[in-house]
Design brief:
Blueprint (H helix, E strand, L loop, with lengths): L15 E5 L9 E10 L6 E5 L6 E4 L4 E4 L6 E5 L2 E3 L1 E5 L1 H7 L10 E3 L5 H14 L5 H17 L4 H14 L7 H8 L3 H11 L4 H19 L5 H7 L5 H12 L3 H9 L1
Antiparallel strand pairs: 1-2, 2-7, 2-8, 3-6, 4-5, 4-8, 5-9
Length: 264
């Protein structure tokens, strides 16, 4: 399911922003595509604060194609002038076709070599689509998907298993612990750790913590009538204090203060 704002800390501050599902042929490679478009008045900027999904993103804009690693902290970007970006939240099967060691890219990013013909072709196809008619976003997603399919298909058994790991850790009914995830997948915890390191660059525990914090931020923001202790208990935090520590460590703000800012 494509959640339109999870991971975005202040959705009301967003410029035009869309999340589009991957075409059926690319669902094994991309969780979804995300497309911001902005036109900021001269002399002004729009700061976008994100607690990103524990996954890699491939991002195309008018100037570059960038592979961004999984993150361990909140991040922000300042938007100025006018522009757009088309990003793909990659599933593990696509990651293995783009980088050998995703852990080397944690909290970082790499501009891909535009001299390489296939990367230049991706940029040119997406730029052309974004300059087309009112279906420009859908056309960009179609072009992006075709490129990934050519680059990463067919999907082998190890990549399929890695996709299953992502589904168990980040899906609609996620595991609460690495042990639970390993049991569901019928693998050892050590095998689970090797797979997430190979395809994401993070440990299973780190991925679970990030997903839980995303959910907590969304609940705190969207359900002002629910007390924080209830949210903490429902999401598997040991107690209210544990939730508060997670917020402070990653987001730099207490849950109550975040709730006030997000709905104020």
């Amino acid at each position: 399911m494509v959640n339109p704002t999870r991971g975005v800390l202040y959705p009301a501050r967003l410029p035009q922003f869309h999340r589009l599902p991957a075409p059926s042929a690319a669902t094994g490679l991309v969780a979804w595509f995300w497309i911001p478009e902005w036109d900021i008045a001269p002399g002004r900027s729009s700061q976008q604060e994100i607690v990103a999904y524990p996954a890699l993103n491939l991002v195309v804009d008018a100037e570059a194609v960038t592979l961004s690693g999984a993150t361990t902290r909140a991040s922000h970007r300042d938007l100025r002038g006018s522009g757009w970006a088309v990003g793909a939240l990659l599933r593990p099967a696509a990651v293995s076709a783009l980088i050998e060691d995703p852990s080397s890219l944690v909290d970082g990013e790499r501009v891909l070599d535009h001299e390489a013909g296939d990367v230049a072709a991706l940029r040119d196809a997406v730029v052309s689509a974004m300059g087309s008619d009112e279906r420009h976003r859908e056309r960009a997603v179609e072009a992006f998907s075709r490129w990934l399919e050519e680059r990463a298909s067919p999907i082998g058994d190890p990549a399929r298993q890695a996709n299953a790991v992502m589904d168990v850790l980040m899906g609609d009914d996620p595991a609460l612990t690495p042990e639970e995830a390993a049991t569901r997948l019928a693998v050892s915890v050590r095998t689970l750790q090797r797979m997430t390191h190979r395809y994401v660059g993070l440990s299973p525990a780190a991925m679970i913590r990030r997903r839980r914090l995303q959910e907590a931020a969304q609940r705190v923001r969207e359900e002002p009538g629910v007390d924080l202790a209830s949210i903490a208990a429902e999401l598997g935090y040991a107690d209210h204090a544990h939730l508060t520590r997670d917020f402070q460590t990653v987001l730099g703000i207490a849950p109550r203060a975040y709730r006030s800012e997000a709905i104020g």
